[in-house]
Design brief:
- The chain is mainly α and 288 residues long.
- It is 73% helix and 3% strand.
- The chain has ten helices and two strands; from the N terminus they run ααααββαααααα.
Length: 288
Amino acid sequence: MSLFLSQLFNGLATGLLLALISTGLTIIYGTLGVVNFAHGALFVVGSYAGFTAYTMTGSFLAAIAAGAAMALFVGLVIERGIMRMYYQRPAEDQILVTFGIGIILVEVVRSIYGGVSLSVPTPEWGQGIAQIGSLIYPLYRLQALFIAAGTLAVLYFVLYRTSLGLIVRAGIEDAQMVNVLGINVKRTFLLVFGIGAMAAGYAGVIDSPIVTLSPDMGHRILVDSFVVVVIGGVGSFPGAIIGGIIAGEILSLTSIFNPAYSHVMLFVVMALVLIFRPQGLMGQEGRE
């Protein structure tokens, strides 16, 4: 029972971090119609920027700020310098260019830090264990769970309780109509791409004390994030959260029996969703 509860909490923590990453991915795709294959590389950029800031300052809060800011900056440069020219291009072109951008970013990170795995120490306020009833659980993992949940709550407030969120959600449904109303959709798109990139970088820093950093870790995150988006529904913020939690629990609970089958079960669930509910659990039917 203790092992089951521990894995249940692990799945929830993993799921909320996946939801945070996937939220950025689904916002970009839902608003801009761009399948951003560079999203995993932005996760890597944020992680390594946070590692550098933590090494220089010894402050994990500075690391979070640096990772989020670097991913935001890189995302804005990508959108302003490249992606703006591809919004009206075929989806295959968008996939190829974002895939190429992702490769370039990863290789830049590799050239700076090398291919050796690195680790970020757990911050002082996250060291130790927490006792929840009979369950003994690492304190930082529990804190990471609440940090991810709090960040998702802030993003939800921005998207559903502010005028910016209203514009973004309207742009998801009909960007042309929003433009006709006199709203600068291109500026909004720039902001949306930046927020999506920042979410990936921010999640990378939060996850860095739990995992080992390597330049290639973004590939796994990218695949898992796309699975989350498919399960939850394209363009759906609540769907990204639900899909992330489901994916996290599948990965964690399956590992109790056989870790080798954890991703197999994840893809099985994704296939079942595609068969019985192609739009995803929270997606809109008929949407392209």
